[in-house]
Amino acid sequence: MQTPDQKTANHTVFEDAQAFVYGTAMCAFAVVMLRDLGFITGQTAGLALLISYVLKASFGWVFFAVNLPFYWFGYKRMGMKFVLKTFACVALISGFSELFPHLISFERVNPVFGAVMIGFLQGAGLMAIFRHGGSLGGIGILALYLQDATKLKAGYVQLGFDVILLGVAALLLPLTLVAYSLLGAVILNLVIAINHRRDRYIAM
Known about the structure:
Elements: H1 13-37, H2 43-55, H3 59-67, H4 70-78, H5 80-99, H6 111-131, H7 139-150, H8 154-169, H9 175-195
């Protein structure tokens, strides 16, 4: 088993690209399910969804705009390479979330099953993005920085923000939808907290 002090090879540009396409596609597919079910999610995507519900605006454009203020912080704390990868991932998920509704629709999805699968889809997508040195911006940048600086797991940081966001959503959305959304957020962040381990996965 590889230890943290062992040197690992960097990912190639192709490996990064396929991970970002895969990861953002998984997350965008989850967003389509979220919007179809009327759920909210956590992190910056959840904030963008909530704004898009209130303003009846496009999620893709709102998500792209909400992330803009975080790039300077990401540059100062994580470096230009991280910011460029994050910008690419945000642009991809913004585009995919606009495209996918034209390619698929859901006639019936059990809300509990939907919440669980949304958490799994987002978790899998974010794991691929994180392991290749990117993020989906916003709270993801802050969470990854705090994990590196303080060893506080990124999933737990994001879960704290998610609880606050869902509390605000409870004032605007039916409580049943917020409860289902909370289930998905908990699953998502547990996937990241359990699996995103720098001491095990250190290739960037």
